[in-house]
């Protein structure tokens, strides 16, 4: 029996060789994070990152999500033949169900950014080191982004759950009820007001230009005031913004979408989602399904370097292309009008495509380095003009308005607007915004639901963008086609049944998972 | 036990005698009627293996009733002294049936043929942590006939298992040399946690993770611009094992057999034992074969002219101008490219193996060197494998045994990208592979363009190098009689290096001035097992067999990868990464650990009543801190009914030679998830800074803390019966089983307000139930023998729950789902729109008049000849809500039907296997049935709708149709029966052998994949492109077709 004892002794020496605790060496454990201000900086950079391309490589709030979802919902974009799924068509046609993937994506990606911001806002103050000022700034940056996302979500979905603390352990934040829109707006303003503590944009070093600034917080407060119809407050915010520092328009429209540091950091830019050419993590992918394929030398191209085939999944809505005067310099940045036939590369086809985001220096059309402006000085000027017009100050409104207008025509005043009739000037402002921000679809959709007021009028606008353009080819949605397709389905102007489209539905899967949510009217 | 009586008398009487005797036995001694004086009471002879006629070395020859005996030498020759006639010799050897020969007087030297003891009751079966007699088993275990495995000619043992065991479904992921196969034992249990069986190679438990053999340096996506998504490329980690080195394979199917592997037993266990040395002087064996492989059949596609007309029709239907002019179309009559002819070749394959084994009373050894060179049927693809193996068993003292196994393998594979087959099929015949201006044509230039597959096959580099060292050493010490302690230490080192390069002469490399990717991944896996076994028999009435043990295992995987582009010259390519202008680096690290305690009791009473109980406790590092440990018990009972007195009459009446009833239950687990899934983790990212082209670092919380993450648990019940008739000439095994897997590891939807889309949690229940049957019959015995082995398996699988919030999990986007997992349905049913033929012109007119046609898939241009989707929910709109279940990828049953014939020196083996009732979701054919003229179509699509052909089978060409829409048009019947292999062998007669001075020569010819009976119009109904995804079984995504192979070879023993 002694031998057995020896044997067991030998065996027992092997016991406790292994420890079942895990050390994930290639990743950082949450428990080891938020120890220094450097960690805090990393966490806030992680918040910004999701504005362009989220972690899963999906669309990004200020990226394709904007150009497709809000573009197709509104009158600026219509899905083309290569449109990869019927969800875009369904949105365009006001026939989408609550399980439409576009409705889900804006929800998902919005809350993903919010969670990252919440984590920074809650955890950075717990760090204990000497960089108190830097940490306070970082928290306010995160608050700006949180306010920004809630500002979009509340306009898209109406009453939404206000999630203000991060999800860290499974089970956190599982079911939170919606807050009414007034409460959500209160939170948004509170976040933007806190962000007013941030440095001004001009005081940031070049390397920090991507950060949220006091200017950005003011500009967003101005936008919120306009959305809420608080015209005097809007004027106050404009004046406060002007007091922070000088913002000017870029001389040429195309330079707003430039690739150099000087172009990206021009004072017209107040807050952008940043991208770099051929950067695998931060890229603008709007061009990938909108522009015809360019720059593939081996396929054969014509003299202008424009490839033969237009393979856009989304086309410009036909009314959009036609509201531009031929003299408008923006056309050349926003559109390419003519592509070449499929086979011989010689036959011209008139078929406008979006071209705004194409980066000719990129090896991959999906990988554009053009920044996506979230708010720029041109928008501030037009918002300001709108407020002045509503306050019956058309002359001042026209000054602001014509700054944007004249730039479009080579800084010539030839086509300046002189209308002073309040209703007509309002229409002019909105039409100008439609042109100026064409293919920056986070602007137009919110104007549409704001100014048109009722679902019926919204429908009118959108349907009028499907037109029988005799020279347009392909699968344009035309009104005639639509009528033939289903006469019973033609929306009637002013029809109350379309009011529901002023808000997106709460996504089907989300309603399923969170019993406290209440569906928006008309979508039940 | 066979019996032979030496006969003296006339040949006529001898024949009668034979007839009488051979009803039971086919083995007989060579007769001699010459009389020899029995001056010495001695019998001489030699022992040969019945089938191969090779010498049986070390066979024991005992004289009944005497203590004397001997063993046969390396020539199989023996000489035994006897006391007196008559005498009975008992000749025995492990793995053979015993022979008894009666002698009445002295004779010339005799020849004793020993028959293979495959599947015999006395045979030892390798089970978890030990061996058991087949007659003592209480669990469901199938032994693979390794002779048959060899005859399939498979270069991978996994592939060769097809049809050889009941309850085991093997499907082909790719026909590429060295590619992986999917193995499912009694159906899939898991959604995320892995469904592959555990492989135990020479006692070393390995969960085969082909990701470890795929470092990530291959190009594989975006090659065909019309397809997206990836399927498996790369070689299988199991392809490193040379099937020629395998001695035996056992498949442990039910939980009473697998529960000893606890948390890794839920998907069944395959125990592979490599060859061991035998006592005797060295045996040298050479085995070599050479063969050719061909594409089994081409898919009939449109020629250039047909495609041009089709394309034009689609353009015109969509309101566009025709693509091709009449002059071009006329020209296509003589200028049509057959891309399949260009891409496929007749490919040689050769395999050589040299093995040496031998030993003495103390030490036995076995070693081999192997070389396989298999060219692929796609040009410039191949697989080369070099293997070396050595095993030593040594008795260091009476009580101490020592053993060592070392398997070394090095393989290189030149691979085609995963979607090259799609590109070959989709590239229109109107496109020429070479441009008029010289060089390759780049892409097809038809809307969604297809890349030139020939340019890729010829110019792109895509290489994977796999190196594996798998070894273990053990010492076993007998502490007291019957009590043995064993310590085993094993190590498995797997290194994979991959290189790819796309030069500037082809599409993928042109715009980036050459693109390379190179990556390396090393997995180090070690195991330590410490076991105590105690065997005790009390007067052969109470027989005990006890096992207790402690094991630990750890696996670490590290990887690095470089992607680079912008090379100054194609000449440097991936050899000079420093010259590239753009480089991206990646690295990975993952580690997992398993700590286990195990125990087992086998008890039987008079070999009549059997009881087995086992318990294993496993602690896994991969699970949450609160649920790290799992306990996996099992229990089973066996009853050898024929040993009961009351059964004797029944047994003799029905000629029952064996009847046993087995009953088993066990709990097993599964935790095959990635490491670190239970922890809150941050992942690094970057964001552009304001300075040109520089980025700043960022981190975000990518994974939530989940300390409750736990085992996926399977409860399995099994009832089995083993029957033998006519002295085991007919053997039948049948098992009924029921498995219920709960706490499934599933990535489930979490409310998105959390900031996350899904998280890995334990939710849901899946059940599998089924029947495994196998029948082996010796149909004809005697000079001519015919043996049949048939297997038949039914499995029914159903998802019972996916938690409270989830009713289904989809793969693919909302409109092109393809496969889903849905409660109440089998795993991975196909999902999409139902179709009801084509719209007629009058229907369209009618709908238009009523305004009731609202089809969101076809859009505004819906017209006559378009596909009519069924409005399943009758709400007047055809949209995603009309998607429904359109097919089941799981077969109604699978079968194998294997026959072996032998006559004189010839033997013939036929293996037939198949699957019935399963559906295939073919992305490959979906592309070839596309109506928009973006890529080529199958020839039968020429029967398309047009104004002049309104009764057509297929829809009208229409550029405006959204290609992604999924419908039952792309679901096909995947039933098939295949002549898997046909092998004819011939053993050279002794007379020639003695001249050649070799012991044995066997010549053989084998044909593989000769004939398939199926309705599936794709390359191969035996297809499963996504081997790792349970939710996407039965999908054909441009899989590399399986070749038809003819081999000729020889086995020579010196």
What does this protein structure show overall?
The complex is a heterodimer of chains A (524) and B (1054). Chain A is mainly alpha-helical. Chain A has 19 helices and 9 strands. In chain A, strands 2-6 form a two-stranded antiparallel sheet. Chain A has a two-stranded antiparallel sheet with strand order 3-4. Chain A has a two-stranded antiparallel sheet with strand order 5-9. Chain A is globular. Mean pLDDT of chain A is 83; it is low at 294-310, 467-477 and 484-491. By secondary structure, chain B is mainly β. In chain B, a hairpin with an 8-residue loop joins strand 28 and strand 29. In chain B, helix 5 (304-317) packs antiparallel against helix 6 (326-332). The radius of gyration of chain B is 32 Å and the shape is globular. The chains are: A mainly alpha (524), B mainly beta (1054). Strand 1 of chain A pairs antiparallel with strand 31 (681-688) of chain B, so a sheet runs across the interface.
Index terms:
heterodimer, A: 524 residues, mainly alpha, Serine Threonine Protein Phosphatase 5, Tetratricopeptide repeat, two-stranded antiparallel sheet, 19 helices, 45% helix, B: 1054 residues, mainly beta, 14 helices, 54 strands, 9% helix, globular
Rg of chain A over CA atoms, rounded to whole Å, is 26 Å
Which residues of chain A form runs of ≥5 with pLDDT under 50? Answer: 294-310, 467-477, 484-491
Distance between the termini of chain B: 31 Å
Give the mean pLDDT of chain A: 83
Mean pLDDT of chain B: 85
Q: Based on DSSP secondary structure assignment, what is the total number of beta strands of chain A? A: 9
